[in-house]
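The passage that follows is intended for readers who have already worked through the single-chain material. We present the inputs for a multi-component assembly, then the predicted structure in tokenized form, and finally a short commentary. You are encouraged to pause after the input and sketch how you expect the pieces to fit together before reading on.
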Amino acid sequence: MGSRASTLLREEEIEEIKKETGFSHSQITRLYSRFTSLDKGENGTLSREDFQRIPELAINPLGDRIINAFFPDGEDQVNFRGFMRTLAHFRPVEDNEKNKNLSNTEPLNSRTNKLHFAFQLYDLDRDDKISRDELLQVLRMMVGVNISDEQLGSIADRTIQEADTNGDGCISFTEFIKVLEKVDVEQKMSIRFLH
Amino acid sequence: MPSRMGARAPAGFARSFLELGLLLLLVFVLLQGSVFPYGADASSQHAKDGCSSTHEGKPNRTKKVFPVLSFEYDHIKTPFEVSLWVLFASLMKLGFHLVPRLSSIVPESCLLIVVGLLVGGLSKLIGESELPKLDSGNFFLVLLPPIILDAGYFLPIRPFMENLGTILMFAVVGTLWNAFFIGSVLFAVCQIPAAGLTHLGLLSCLLFGSIISAVDPVAVLAVFEEIHINELLHILVFGESLLNDAVTVVLYHLFEEFSAFGTVTVLDGFLGVISFLIVAFGGVLVGAIYGILAAFTSRFTSHMRVIEPLFVFVYSYIAYLSAELFHLSGIMALIACGAVMRPYVEANISHKSHTTIKYFLKMWSSVSETLIFILLGVATVGGPHNWNWIFVTSTVFLCLVARVIGVIGLTFIINKFRIVKLTTKDQFIVAYGGLRGAIAFSLGFLLEVEDEEMRHIFLTAIITVIFFTVFVQGMTIKPLVELLAVKKKQEAKRSINEEIHIQFLDHLLTGIEDICGHYGHHHWKDKMNRFNRKYVKKCLIAGERSKEPQLIAFYHKLEFKQAIQLVESGAGGKLSSALPSTVSIQNIQPKKPPPAPEPRERVLPQLPKSREEEIRKILRSNLQRTRQRLRSYNRHTLVADPYEEGLNDLLKKQKMFELEKKIKEMNNYLSVPVATSDSPTLRRARLASDPQAYNVKPDPVAVPTIQVELASPQSPDSVNIMDEFRKDKEKDEDTGLTMKPPSGPSAPPRKQSEDAKDPQKLTRCLSDPGPSADEGEDDPFLP
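Having made your guess, compare it with the prediction:
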């Protein structure tokens, strides 16, 4: 692993990742070593099985969905760039970043982008709406098997009713943002990555 | 005379509160001076002599005359005085809120201190030398625990845990910094010959510093409660004030021990650190043990609901006393006990007990707080003072400076580790909110130093600092908060959306942390939650409730509350029509196999409009005809309202109709007993739509009450419709909607025998949803 690791992560790559995601140099190298330790096949990409080997993820109710979120549409392998791009959503929002405007696009870890990431975990068919069924699926995963379908159904109905402002029976992204406006998303969706 | 004055007071009440207030004060002080002097010896004589105007009493001097009316004050002296003080405090509190503008400008604590000052002043004028002192025994054992328990029981666990690092930094390091800074600079000041304080050694100054450095939870609560600041700041300052107790206890004892000897070695310092760890963790451990005991006890109280609140209070108080016994931190024990027991106890107890606990805690803490502030005022006037300009002013100044420097310095360090940084505004509020209060005063009072003069100097300085912080800082913090546009508390309650999404995010973050191999906050929280669910809940929560996921519990609470609102606003007829628009409560049916002895619940179906009308008509006619006789209230039974029983029937009839329909469609219903051993919240939710399902214990004597429902020796409700139906089928009757005549015990007992087994089951009634500010109860444990 030694020689391959050093050739796989070049300085230019680190710089590019830094620009794209905002991680610092040491964070990138640290995450890279984690990436390689997960990559049992040693081919520079991670597959779904690599993720599933993480024991805690297996008991996480949302484990599968989270794993899916790393893989861009249709693909089965994710490289380090993709890995970092997904993780970048969870970087804490820094105060000075709010003022700086490096590029035209919003940084990956802005509040909207964080919420969009979470939204996409609900919305599997990518139609920009969380339908009742999608909500039910998530609820079922979180709640376990003991609760009856009807009960979950009424919870889902209640949830949609609270959030739905335009009456289409689904939760759109804007409604999703509105519902969570009181929640401190910047804190709840951030991980303190070690330096 | 006072009685006549009292009679005149109500008349003038509306016009001028001040008049009444002064009148009350005067009455009280006169009573104190003339009737209730302290110092037992000459009391009875004195009282008899002085009280001719207040009480009729024939002094019994001769043997011949039998005393028709006698006066013996000593017998009831202490309880009477205590009650009078409590009454006085409560009336004052009541009075403040009648003057609308006053309570918005001046915080209540200030007003209460002023009242205390007045009382003290008046009684000094009258020459009454003995007033109740804020003596440390009373304060620490009686007045302080209710406030701390109230704070601990309703502590918002999630924000507290999330900010625990910050809070601990402020509490421990901040208080240490304050103590040493103030102590050493004061010592330097004392060295100035002009002050005349050179006799104060370094250790005495450090002792003083340790007393005055701690932020006081009572004062913070009193002031912050009124300014509705955002949750983060509130929990920071409040958490700090609670947790610095351990530091204060250790420092106080350390310096008190050693100020006698005059030297402190390194070993002593080291022992001090160890002592701190023991005090802090020991306190928490003691509290946690008692909390678990209380939770475990509450598991078995389903048959004796009336004494449930008692367990909460008694276990907590014993935890406090046990901690104090070992010189551990009693406050931390109390907080730990309340916080640990709460999620389990709330899962086990009835709704009424929950309300009782809430109200009792608020009531006691409120009265305690009021008394503390009043007695502080009284003690100010009464206490022995030794005013030393330099000492006092430098103390006040140093307290402020130390606090500001401490907060700024610590925030600088803390912000390196926080995800959401503390802004300058936040820092200012945290620094400004560092109020001192009665704990400092009591600790000063407790001091046992040979130098009495020094003690008086200390006490004077402490009182001045308290006054300064409470009055100046307390009064100005509200306008400052407005001025600086600090974020206020979010008033809205948590919606089900937020609850779901927050849990979702928790799982998401835990997953991401696992992927990164990063054992952070979420990872440990998730582990603890899983442990809690797997082992702890099974032990401490009764019955099926232990398996109920937190989301479901939250949802049911929401439904319950909504149903209460519906009932309160609507009344019977609208009930069924209002329900379906929001939620289909009727579908609540967990997929669990039913254990037999549990009494069964009803399924509440929807009702078509025509049936509704029919029901309404019939009810109307029947309710007009009959009159209920209220059974006298007995501690062992909870009486049912006539109106509620009528409502009961409405709902029962609904079900009968609906099931009549269903029976024709689905035969297999009969073989399956209806929904079953539900969790208490499910039951509550169901009862929400069936609101007043009281379950009255069977009368020993068949009271011939005239009821709309069949009177049987057993409870008139909690009918199992399915069984009723089955019996109907057996008897081959089509009951439809026939009203059995109120025929007393001769009616065929259609009630189930199971009802007798569980008399108090359905006592979760919608009597009182509790005070509105109850966001705290929606927070799940370790959410």
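Commentary: The CA atoms of residues 404 and 431 of chain B lie 6 Å apart. The mean pLDDT of chain B is 72. How closely did your sketch match?
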